[in-house]
Amino acid sequence: MPGPGPHMMYAMGSGLAMSSLTNGRFSPHYTLTYTVNAFFGPDISSFSEWLSSTIGFGHTFASALADAIHHPFYYILILGLPLCFLYSWVSRVLIQKGVLDSVSGVSY
After folding, report:
1. Which regions span the lipid bilayer (predicted)?
2. pTM attached to this predicted model
């Protein structure tokens, strides 16, 4: 199974395809969020195992974290819900600063 790198490439490619298919309604903002989420997807466990072994937490912590991330319920609690709030906050801040455009025209 590929790691986070190939998944990010697939997400950027499919985001570009969706952007062209929807005449720009699937904006670069969505493509960026989609790509970041592809990195933090369930395959982040291989990255977390490498990181925890590099930092020195040991194999037990890394395997427990990998098992928790691969569980459908714990994935929502560990990564899904926090990333949802993070993406929402970052999007609001970037729209207010004028970095991103609101496709719907709604201002925050």
Report:
1. 73-90
2. 0.58
